[in-house]
Amino acid sequence: VKGWTETSKIVFAQNKVWSNVSAGIESWSWSSRQLSLQSGGTVTIPCHYNMKYIQHKKYWCYDAKAAFNYCKILAYGNTTKGRVTVTDYPAQSLFTVTMRDLRSGDTGMYWCAVEIEGLWPDVKEDIYITVKSVPDMSVEESSVSGQEGGSVSVQCLYSAGHQNELKQWCRSKDQRCYTVGRTDTSQNSAVQINDDGRRSFSVEMSGLQKSDAGWYWCKTGDLQVPVHLSVSDAPPGTIVWSFCKIRLYA
User: Fold this and answer.
1) Where are the chain's structural domains?
2) b vs e for 144-174, b when ≥16 Cβ sit within 10 Å of the residue's Cβ?
3) What is the DSSP string of 67-89?
């Protein structure tokens, strides 16, 4: 891939994805994430891992048309190589990958991976990226913020070919997904999804709690786009209702 510094490596990797990382559970998944991205743009992708791998090296690997379990490492954790930056957040059990100045030649299979020493295989998640001038799915804002007790909206855009596919809003760390309609969450917040049938659907999260902060995915069919949500303290004097308690911000 032009513009990137590459390190070749043979990775005897399991195709493993964690569906409940907060509980430390690893489950098998043979599907990969599929992203459709705009040429010239920038994307930040969250990669979650089990807490037991906090001290292990993390890396972002390019695998397009490569031999079985052979890849080219583009960057390790907390480094920037060319157009790629990998940042590890041990307290959150995740690392992010930022790719800048996307080009059509960047299309291909990538791995979010954790390096396992010795004879044990590295663990990874497959992510297939397609870069084109007009992506099949995108969001108006890839990073949104709200206040505790307030609400936030996200607009997810999709091409005509995906009009009849299932639309979802998924929390990245536990893979919980919400579909069109209103859903009350376990944090006492609510998620409302409306599909206008004209190549966009909106997501509104109301009654925000601090625990709602983190990474989410807009999804239509197999395509998805990452969105980061930040939740700040409520303004002074605001009463915030949360599960089993009431808080007053003075």
Assistant:
1) 7-132, 137-233
2) bebbbbbebebebbbeeebeeeebbbbbbbe
3) PTTEEEEEEETTEEETTEEEEEE
- 58-62 and 43-48 strand pairing: unpaired
Q: Fold match between 7-132 and 137-233?
A: yes
Q: Are 111 and 61 in contact (CB under 8 A)?
A: yes
Structure pTM?
Answer: 0.83
Half-sphere CA count of 137, side-chain side, radius 13 A: 24
| CATH architecture of the domain covering 137-233 | Sandwich (2.60)
The DSSP bridge pattern shows strands 14-20 and 25-28 to be antiparallel
CA distance linking residue 150 with residue 240, whole number of Å: 9
For the chain, the residue count is 250
Q: Please give the CATH number for the structural domain made up of 7-132.
A: 2.60.40.10
* Binned average pLDDT, 10 residues per bin, the chain of 250 residues: 58 40 35 91 97 96 68 95 97 97 95 88 91 97 96 96 94 92 72 92 95 96 97 78 45
